[in-house]
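Sample A.
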Amino acid sequence: MPLGQPLRLGRHSVFPPLLMAPMLDITNRAFRTLVRGYGGCGLFYTEMLNARRLPTESAQSPFWQGLGVERDVMVQLLGDDPEALARSVERLLPLDPFGFDWNLGCARKKITHWGWGAALLENPQATARGLRALRQATDKPLTVKIRLPEHGHPDLFKSFIKLLENEGVDAITVHARTAADGFKRPARWDAIAQVKSWTKVPVIGNGDVQSAADAQAMFQKTGCDAVMIGRGAVGKPYLFKTIINQASGATEPAPEAAKVLEAMLTCLDTALETPKGAREFKVFCRYFAQTLPVPHWFWAPLQSMTLGPELAKRARVFFKK
């Protein structure tokens, strides 16, 4: 399976065209470091960062860790206020991230309640205002991550895609589910192919890529320019490298689960002692458990724990039996 051409983002290119999806409480610096250590991922995204808070937030915020050092990271912004979005970009530009992504897909009610995330799919005027502000604030790569709209005629969705193109985005990531779908139904890859046929802007496919075979199928069935992987890579941070190996015909066994766990703990380091670090490690463990023969045996003892060192100690016990 050849991986094809690099993903073009403005004047920049990304190869391999395999991207780590932005995920709350997951795509922190520790997890990005973990995935980067295995190789194969062409571009990373931060967790979504609130544009209302960013302009005045302390530079010591854990959400900012890695910025200014990691050069392969897109910052994902959340919000709908053009001024706040622009000010957030201006605040972050001195840290020289690879580029910026605007979240138009988060379906959490506490996000859509404010008209943010997926709610912007139903508000093209606000979307246009936000994109103009972002595009004026930076000439770095600018992408958006959307999901499928809940309502409306297909022509309205096509018009929305053309709006994104006309306002200067460098790529469109399509998470091929509606907000109501959640993860209850398979991703609709045909919608990714449809978006690809509507626009000249590179399209990044997202949804239900759990294996190298899935990545190959998404490229082939949708014609997308890149594949973004989320949940499938959390428990298997080496998945990107597996895809690369399959594309080149190489064979390499998956790392031992115990070694993956230890690698994650090494990347977390002292952050594990903080509430945020402990929460992030627990989220990682929930996904990691799914890679084990009997997930419940690993995950059940961790569910009631909240302190990082205790979580780490109990997780290690599983592999000492």
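Sample B.
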Amino acid sequence: MKKIDIRNLGIEDLTKFIEKNGDKAFRAKQIHEWFWNKGARSFDALKNIPKSLIEKLIENFSFPVLEIHEIQKSTDGTAKFTFISEDKKLTEGVLIPSLKRVTACISTQVGCPLGCKFCATGQLGFDRNLSAGEIFDQITLMQSYALETYENPISNIVIMGMGEPLLNLDACTDAIQKLISPIYKGMSPKRITLSTVGLCDGIYTLADMQLGIELAISLHSAIQSERERLIPAAKLNPLSEITDALKYYHQKTDQRVTIEYVLLKDVNDQAIHSRTLAEFCKSIPVKINIIEFNPTEGIPYSKSDDKVRAEFAAFLESKNLIVNVRKSRGKDIAAACGQLAGKITKSDEI
């Protein structure tokens, strides 16, 4: 039988196992601290745990971890990490340094099942979900690089890499809870942003969990028919239902939602699109991130002209909306928004 990943075991179940095998219950807390606070990456790293108990753990559980397969460095300081799993699957993460912070962009799936037409990851198809431990590993592995290279720790996390987080909700929220727990990593939840294309069921669940993290919606059009052409999942999650879900999220959390909008030349960057976006954003408090499209081989879109982008943002600002125009980082190493996994194919697996 395949062994259970020990990091998928909650502390209560781990306590029961330990007591059943004749050891003391407090060992479960010690082991969890090794996993989620000290960044242990093997059973051998559990230094203050009795050898007899470690042997029992090895006998009954697996401990799969991600490893760094490759690091690519951009001319702008961005670093893209290709991680390899125990079963030889590849996924990617990105470190983005700025003057005051280091942001880690992490993944939740190998590939992505949603097939968004402008996203390189969406063209890969879906392989599998990442475990909570594998999601957490990305931060552990990139933290060392951040400290050594940027002389600063990771200050912010954006869950915007490969995959749709709300399709791997249990593992994703488990990893988040370990990151924000004061007894583990103790990060401020306000420094973690989860991005989704707008899967309503997941938004309601997140709202009820009240983790305190930021929520971002990859909208890209406020016209339903056009959004469906760009994002196939929009057919099952229409704008009217997303609006209701976001209202509920705001009601439960009192948090402003971020609307992400990639501008595509002659596709979603005209006056009708800025008007409909402004109308959509009237329902709840939001801020809007205008994102430059980053070309990727095989994807038939191009970025909007600078003048068009400026006029689009100016119109939204004239409607008293908060607008940020995001600059792309790491384009030269395919690490920018929408480019992750652009060079990973099945044949690249090791």
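B remarks: The longest strand covers residues 90-97. The longest helix spans residues 132-150.
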